[in-house]
Amino acid sequence: MEDYKFLFKIVLVGNAGVGKTCLVRRFTQGLFPPGQGATIGVDFMIKTVEVEGEKIKLQIWDTAGQERFRSITQSYYRSAHALILVYDISCQPTFDCLPDWLREIQEYANIKVLKILVGNKTDRHDREIPTEVGHYFAKQHEMYFLETSAKEAENVERLFYEIAAELIDQARSKDGSSAATTAAQRQTDSGSIGLGFSSLSAKAAQSNCCSGLGLGNNDNASGTVGSNNTSQGG
Ligand SMILES: Nc1nc2c(ncn2[C@@H]2O[C@H](COP(=O)(O)OP(=O)(O)OP(=O)(O)O)[C@@H](O)[C@H]2O)c(=O)[nH]1
Questions:
Q1: Which one of 9, 128, 155, 202 has the largest count of C-beta atoms within 10 Å of its C-beta?
Q2: What is the CATH number of the domain that holds 214?
């Protein structure tokens, strides 16, 4: 029988081609897929990690960036504990679209959802969005901020582990039951979860960055990697 303390749902959104699927693959499978095709609808993958001594199951939803799938992907926002909004640091239009994505999030996600802005593809040398610009945007919108490279595995583990750690903190501060799907609830996954975040934590407000959340010793946590392709578009 599976044994875990919390199940957290993490949803990745952002323009087509920013690297959402590659980030998920890098984290769950430890690889950078060659010739990654566009996501159709929504996929999800599961990884069990150990954070702060707790076994945590992460259900990671990878949504299609293409406009034509928007009505499908929107329906996955509501049950997310964390939303990762991804842009490509070498592609200005993906950054310019962020306000549109935030409007979507505001409309469809839980108001207390943990939001993380991620600038991906830091390995590229044709950067168009300086780190400070991304950081400032995140600060303005009360989001965490991190730059990553799915290709070079930079900050990818850190991204997901720190989200897990933050969600654990939130869950614990809310009595351990309302901010997460607990093991007891896992059989009845209703999709509507009462997130209990009081606000973005002071840590987030101060740093607007995943740094400072005090992780980093779990890089080698053994994870159960499972894959379940649930493409729903077409
Ligand atoms: N250089 C570089 N390329 C990347 C990185 N991450 C993804 N890519 C490339 O960017 C392209 C798109 O990656 P995907 O992961 O499919 O992008 P996506 O955001 O999932 O796209 P949709 O499924 O259409 O929404 C692919 O050619 C990847 O190889 C990265 O960190 N560095």
A1: 9
A2: 3.40.50.300
